[in-house]
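Format notes (please read before filing issues)

Several people have asked whether sequences and structure tokens are stored in separate files. They are not. Every record keeps both together, in the order shown below: the sequence lines, then the token lines. Line labels are part of the format and must not be stripped during preprocessing.
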Amino acid sequence: DTAMATLFGHTKGAFTGATEARAGLLRQADSGVLFLDEIGEIGLDEQAMLLRAIEEKRFLPLGSDTEVESDFQLICGTNRDLHESAAEGNFREDLLSRINLWTYRLPGLADRVEDIEPNLDYELNRYMLRNNLYVQFSAEARKEFLRFATSKQAKWSANFRDLIGAVTRMATLAPGGRITEEVVQAETESLRKKWSTDGRPPKGQTLTVSLPRELMDQLDDFDRVQLEFVLTICRECRSLSEAGRKIYAVSRSKRKTPNDADRLRKYLARFGLSWEEVVAD
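Then the structure lines:
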């Protein structure tokens, strides 16, 4: 009832807690534009009513037996594949056909790193206004967070929700209203764990993450297995030298000057990879 009442409005007493009548979003958008975010989350009943409202520009508010009119332009947002939802029976195909006139795909936050710094400032200001507090980054802490936030390590899988959460936590934990390097380091470590259960791609996906498909298709099975092993070891180690010592544990003992790091660097270069790219994936 809550979603239906929010969209279509309701009469007084239409449901428990409805102490007064409300117009609803569709009526408020009459002669204007209505943006419905997360449209893939509304139920099938609401979808049927929305389809009729779009096509006939008429609908029944919850608890009313009198139709109302509203002529509006509709923009919808979703992070779901609505075609897949329709195939699964969770989204009406007729509604999808009606709203799918123009489709625009917005890149995620990780693909537009130029937006991170201004939104970092914006969200921190919002936090201060909301909580009536003064909180600022130290210069080095700000640099460190932005360095991480714009790197390949930052997945931003939940986009701005992740950024808002990070700002809220850092501001809340800031000693004396100052976000320090220690606070930033704790937050970046927390984000890394959130984005990956063990800091590595799921088993069997190491090559998929690291190499483009066209290069993978050119590798023999032997090379694939060997490279998969090397990349797994690299992601378990803290440095290029440590990884090299593990990988070349036997042959290094036969060398007068075992330069494990250089050997590993050259091996990765054969596949167009660098240590930094491997551990950042």
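For reference, the curators noted about this record: The CA atoms of residues 8 and 143 lie 47 Å apart. The chain has three domains: 2-99, 109-195, 206-280.
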